[in-house]
C-alpha cells in the first residue's frame, strides 16, 4: 500500500513537471520560456562610461580601462606634434605648411575659420566676434606683432592654444589647421574677407611676400609630407621635428 505522503509527493512532482513543460513549450516563438542561469547564455556587458556598482577589477572602480602611459588613440597619431605647448618660437621657426596657397585650400580655410574661429576673432579677424567682445583681449590680426605671424606660429596656436585661447587640436585635424592658418594670413592684410577674392584672382603667386615659407624655397621641403608617422624618441618632451600630418596632393 502506497503511503499517502509518497503519493502526494509524486502528484506534486507530476504537476510541477507539467507546469514547467507548459511554460517552456509556448506557442510564442519569441518567448524562450524558463531559462536556467540565463547569465550563462547572455553576459551582462560593462558600460565604459558609467557603472552601477564599484568595479573591484579596474583602477578607481570604473569600468573603462585607463590607457597605458604614452599610448595614442587609434587614428590620432598625427594630431599632435612633439613641440611643447609653450615653445611657439620653435614652431614658428620649424613648422612648414605642406599645402599650397590654392583657391580650393584658401576657400576651405575660410569656411573652417568662419565655423570655428569667428565667434572670438570676428569675421574680419579684428577680434570683434561676439565672444571676443564679451571677454576682451582677442587680438587684431592686422596690427602689431600679429600681422607678421607665419603659418607655423598659427598652426601651433591652433593646436595648443595661447594665453586665454583654449587648445583646438582635438577639434580640427592637421590639414584643417594649415588651411585655417592660410586664411588667417589673408586676414593679416587688414582687408577682411574681401582680401581672399583678390588673392584668389591673382593666383597663389600673390602670397609670395606674405609667408616666410613662400619666400625661401629651401624652407618648402619636404613638400607633400610632414612626417606623420614619425614619433619622438622622447615622447612628450619635445623635439624640433615637424610631425604635423601627411599632406594630400591638391
Explain this structure.
This protein has 250 residues and is an all-alpha fold. It has a domain at 88-212: Cytochrome c-like domain (Cytochrome Bc1 Complex, Chain D, domain 2). It is built from 9 helices and no strands. The protein has helices at 4-24, 88-94, 103-116, 118-121, 130-135, 151-160, 174-187, 194-202, 212-215. The longest helix is centred in the N-terminal third of the chain and has 21 residues, at 4-24. The relative contact order is 0.14.
Major β-sheet annotation: none
Strand share of the residues?
under 5%
Report the CATH topology name of one domain.
Cytochrome Bc1 Complex, Chain D, domain 2
| Apparent shape | elongated
For the record, the CATH class of one domain is: Mainly Alpha
CATH superfamily of one domain: Cytochrome c-like domain
Show unreliable segments.
203-250
